[in-house]
Design brief:
alpha/beta
Length: about 180
């Protein structure tokens, strides 16, 4: 179980990681196809290309490559890992229905909701309500997610989980779990 959770979390973290640094080798730099001067008889050191790492404008010998690493996780494994994470978090779950807002306002939403702890809170909703999402994105300790898009990382990250009443059947269907008796 722990191994499956670890693999699911690692797969997700590798997929969102940005591999920024990337340098070109002598093969990737434009030009340098012709030998700069003949091999013998000039008195200079031999040279085969203008794009040698020794030359100005040449390639980088052992620079960072920026190759994205991937870790594959099967669909059944992913669903099982999400189910395990959800069952492990079952004591942290509360039912909190989203308020109806005419226009986005972080102040209004923070007054309407129960007091937020200083620890992270995950709020699982049945659909994406634009005004609610815009209102909540400014609150640091609150993360919104749709029930269809639930995955392991936010479940493990959250210290408290709020679920809207309409999201319960979606989660039950997706995870094959009976939540409400």
């Amino acid at each position: 179980m722990k191994h499956l959770l670890h693999r699911a979390l690692r797969t997700h973290m590798l997929s969102i990681r940005q591999w920024g640094a990337h340098t070109k080798t002598r093969a990737e730099i434009r030009g340098g196809g012709r030998k700069p001067w003949k091999q013998k008889g000039t008195g200079r050191a031999r040279a085969g290309s203008r794009r040698s790492p020794l030359w100005r404008g040449g390639g980088v010998a052992f620079g960072p490559r920026g190759v994205a690493m991937e870790c594959k996780l099967n669909r059944k494994e992913s669903r099982k890992a999400t189910k395990i994470a959800f069952m492990a978090c079952s004591k942290k779950i509360q039912i909190v229905n989203p308020p109806i807002l005419e226009k986005p306002s972080s102040r209004t939403i923070s007054q309407m909701l129960p007091p937020l702890p200083s620890r992270p809170v995950l709020w699982i909703l049945h659909e994406k309500n634009p005004s609610l999402w815009l209102s909540c994105r400014n609150i640091k300790t609150l993360q919104l997610i749709q029930a269809e898009h639930i995955y392991v990382k936010p479940l493990l990250w959250a210290k408290q989980i709020w679920i809207s009443h309409e999201a319960i059947p979606i989660l039950e269907n997706q995870l094959n779990v009976k939540m409400m008796e």
